[in-house]
Amino acid sequence: MSRVRKSAAVAALAVSFIGGAEGLRQNAYPDPATRGHPWTVCYGHTGQDVAAGVHKSLEECKALLIADLDARAGDKIEACIPSLATAPVGRYVAVLSLAHNIGAGGVCRSSVARDLNAGRIRQACDDLLKFNRAAGFVMPGLTRRREKERELCLQGT
After folding, report:
1. What is the pLDDT at residue 33?
2. In 3-state terms, what secondary structure has residue 37?
3. Strand, helix or coil at 52?
C-alpha cells in the first residue's frame, strides 16, 4: 500500500493537483486516436469497467483516481525511488503526477529517479521540466503542468 492510501494529506493533494491537471469527464469517451478502445472516464481512468454509456459520480471519480494512483503508480515509484517513502508530500505528489502521466515505468527509468536516488533533489525537480512533449512536440499544457510539478517538488528542500 502506497502513501496515497496511508496519508490523507497525500491523497487530498494528489486528487486536487493531479485531478486538476487531468481534467474530469464523468461520461466515458472513446480514445481520440482509435475512436474506440480504450474508453476513458473521470480523471483518465481506463479499464474493463469503462465502456460507452458509462457515467460516474464525482465521488466515484475521486475513488477511481486514488485507486489508480495507489495501484498503478504509487507502489511502483516507491519501489524504484525508496526516498519517496519519507519525502515531503509535495515532492511525492509531483513524482506521482509524472507517473500518472507517463507511467510508473517511465518514471523509474528517468533522470528524475536517478537524481532522486543519488540525493540530487534540485536536479531531479528540474528534470521534471524535460517531460513536456507528446509525439515529439512541445505541448504548452504539459509545460505548465511540469512547471507546477517542479514547484511542488521543491517544497521543503
Report:
1. 67
2. coil
3. coil
